[in-house]
Amino acid sequence: MLAVAPADPFGYHSRREGYVVIWDRGMETMERSRLEDLQRTRLSWTLHWARDRVPFYRDRLSHLKGLDEHPLEALQDLPFTHKSDLRDQYPLGFLAVSRGEVRRFHASSGTRGKPTVVAYTEHDLTMWSEVVARALAAAGMQPGQTLQNAYGYGLFTGGLGLHAGAERLGVAVIPASGGGTERQVQLMLDLAPDGLAATPSYALYIAETMHHLGVSSDQLALKTGIFGAEPWSEGMREHLESGLGIQAVDIYGLSEITGPGVAIECVEAKAGLHVFEDFFYMEVIDPKTGARKAPGEVGELVLTTLSKEAMPMIRYRTGDLVSVNPEPCICGRTSMRMSRIHGRSDDMLIVRGVNVFPSEIERVLLSQPGVSAHYQLCWEGHPSRPDLVVEIEEAQVGALDQGALAIHLRAALGVHLSVRVVAHGHIPRSQGKAIRVINRMQEES
Ligand SMILES: [Zn+2]
After folding, report:
1. What's the 145 CA to ligand 1 centre distance in angstroms?
2. pTM of the predicted model, to two decimals?
3. Mean pLDDT calculated for residue range 286-299
């Protein structure tokens, strides 16, 4: 039997049975040729806007030809914008509007060096909440539902970004922010949110805390999980879906481009993240040569904003390694999908000369029976010849054979590493972005 929609205040109905909203059907299911026309128009606007208003881009764009006729081709001749450029222009060298036109600032945490600041005009905030509304709808959230937002509120874009998009969709928000995990569980019992937004590692900790408190997922109304801000694997998805009784999807974004909502998996396919290409132009390049990669090939994601006023970004190197899938999706959206993040170029580990990403280790590790989703990667031994040790908690006592798991990981990853099964609770729990790699190497003498 088809589910009957209680109300449809926005007039959007899915082609599919039931009551799945595509928030902006006109844009999200637009024919590719029309979408590409729109991208050209908006890119041309962006190139002019940046050239006329941002000294950094004025120098780069002043001699460029074809901004109006062939903006996509012109773009290919432009150098990339790097994170280090934002740091060099700290705090507001990239600002393209007057201070009076800025409505909000956010900033990166600066864990990898000097922080970067980003700014938004009113129009930028509207665009951002629009893409987050689309993203939440793609995840399965509906107008009239409630979202518990356990992303941190503050300078980090996760909290306020998800918040505004949820309100735009017509969803009530519980602004729980990060931390206070027992209270998070209490709120889920008392206010019955339909969705939870968090980093996947924090969602895992919430699920574990529920278990400790004797709360089962059957007691909750939770149906949807929106998880991002760190790479995660299919194995982690299974742990989160079974632990919380939900459908879990991956959301992607970065503050330099806008924040969360650049791309999201649809709940129908859960196979790659739809990029909102009417606002963000996507390229995948070879990180060494800068050459374009073909669909399906893994490379670094490069993004250009198509409507941002306060801080347009042109060919921004995200550092995230993905591949692109141009195949049509069963959900009806016509945007291209990017794979989940294979890794960040600056997170790569080199184990005795062999490269491996922490996310690849997670993918293989969590596909094994008997493992919990609590793990960390430890560098041990002498710095001249460090060993990588995977510490993992068991799902139940005695569920894991340390030696057999190590043999499997070595074979599947082609990397020399060892495994240590540790007691329950040994791995620190994350209340935000998880720290997966820790250094226990002996000091050099
Ligand atoms: Zn889809």
Report:
1. 21
2. 0.91
3. 96
